[in-house]
Amino acid sequence: MRHVRPVLGLVVLMLASASPRSAPAAGLETLIMPGKVTSAHAKVEQDCSQCHDRADRSRQAALCMNCHKDVAADVRAHAGFHGRLPSIDTAQCKACHSEHLGRDADIVKLSTPGFDHSKTDFALSGAHSSADCAACHKPGRKYREAPSGCSDCHRSDDPHGGKLGANCGTCHEPSAWNRVRFDHDKTRFVLRDAHRDVSCTACHPGNQYAGTPSACASCHAPDDVHRGTRGQDCASCHTTVAWKTSKFDHAKEAHFPLAGAHAQLDCKGCHTTASLKDPLPKDCIGCHRPDDAHATRFGTACEKCHGTSAWKPSTFSHTRDGRFELVGGHAKLGCTACHTAVVAQQKLGTDCASCHRTTDAHAGKLGTDCARCHGVESWRAGVTFDHDLASYPLVGLHVAVPCHACHATPAFKGAARDCNGCHQRDDRHQGALGKDCEACHSPNGWALWQFDHGKVTKFELTGAHASVACSGCHKEPPEKAKLDGDCASCHSRDDVHLGQFGRQCQRCHGTSTFKGARLQ
Length: 520
Fold this sequence. Notes:
Number of helices: 19
Strand order of the largest sheet: 1-2
């Protein structure tokens, strides 16, 4: 205040000394103005009442609108940038636009990088979002004066040369020119199927849209493979999907339904002459004689076995029509493997032997019903003969032995049933212990023997007897030589007493050694 009081005193003195005419020109408001206004407002700087109402400060926004009528119109209509601001009806202009900051002050304070264009009458979308500001807002012009019509900016880009009007947005999207949303269905020529993918210039060359022909032949005469022989009404047979997608009813018109692979054929595949009215054969053999792998051995009615989709697989049911189901290895055979002559002249049997007699390894000794043991995949795979149901069940290592190891002849009969019949050469006892091998040995292996000498012969092998080989005592088979259980029957030659103490050596000697006799 100590600085303000001298200034106020000076102002009062100047007012007192000024003439009555000069006082209004330099009013009190001008003398106490806090600073120069911006250059845009310089012309009203001497008349403070243009912007300020000393009696009512709330009228300041209304005074601004008196000059800025375009902004006032936006506020009333809630349009434009200012009209869309929140609480614009009660807002004060000075809240954003401060004055008295000097002639060069920026009172607009517009930040173009962060400006939200969606708050204006022209929201940026598509390719407009990445456009530079200067591309639309020219220097020296107000931002609100930027053009908003498509043709205002894109007149030079208009491929139609203005012939379709200036409102490009009715057809084109702001994302790119080539994204067209023009609804051709609202015209007299609705675009369907393949026509939708055709470029505009293909039908409208030189931007000529009026009088465009709509007849098929007017555009597709060069594509007409019939060379005009079928007339110009292409739509009577062809559709707009593609030329090959024909709606010509071949069954109704030609009395020959196009089914299966026939439907995929080109017309020229059958109609080799220029005229489609030339007569053609309608039976299979009429066209497919060169393709008949049977050389007509099965007749000319190919449709009895084959379908129209392809020659293979055949629709012939061998189970139903031939009364013989083709399964396993039979299903992989070609027809001529069994049918070596014309079908009408050759009758085939349905039993195995009728075809496989020459490959019968049993030479017919086991009958003709091969299916009792063999499967249909192959002779060796899937053999179902159950040896356990025979008089000699296979156990142990016998299961892994091939059939011919025991059955030396195709008859598969007369094979030995006792161990010695097959294993005589393997008998390390050379028959000394008889033929009843299973009494000691297991079928899981020769070395797996379980003979209990003490339990079976009532002569327990103890001491040195446990390490003696069987042949050490058993010189001959048991059925020929019976061994006594006394010591002298084996050790009479070792008796140093020459029999003076009898044959019961165990009374003095143990089984480990003769030395060290027990004296009683």
